Structures are given as C-alpha cells and as structure tokens.
Write the structure tokens for this entry.
Amino acid sequence: MLVDSGQTLGTSNSYGVAFGDMDGDGDLDAFVANTSGKADTVWLNQ
C-alpha cells in the first residue's frame, strides 16, 4: 500500500513514473522520467 508522505520531490519537469522492484529486495521502487535534458531518477524504497 502506498501512502502520501507529504513531502515534495522538487520540480524536475517529470512526465512519467514506473514502479517495480529494481533492486531485488521485494519493495516497490520508482523510476521517474524527466524532460528538458534533466536526468531520469530512480527512487529506491529502503
């Protein structure tokens, strides 16, 4: 279950997000796709 943390992550002109277990620990992680030459970001759920 995902809940709102109440925190903001900045303004990187993000346009898409995908969730999956990217580090193999069984928790959902997030991949955020950004525009305007900004680097895409992976957020690991630890």
Notes: Residues 8 and 43 are 13 Å apart (CA to CA). DSSP finds no helices and three strands in the chain. The mean pLDDT is 81.
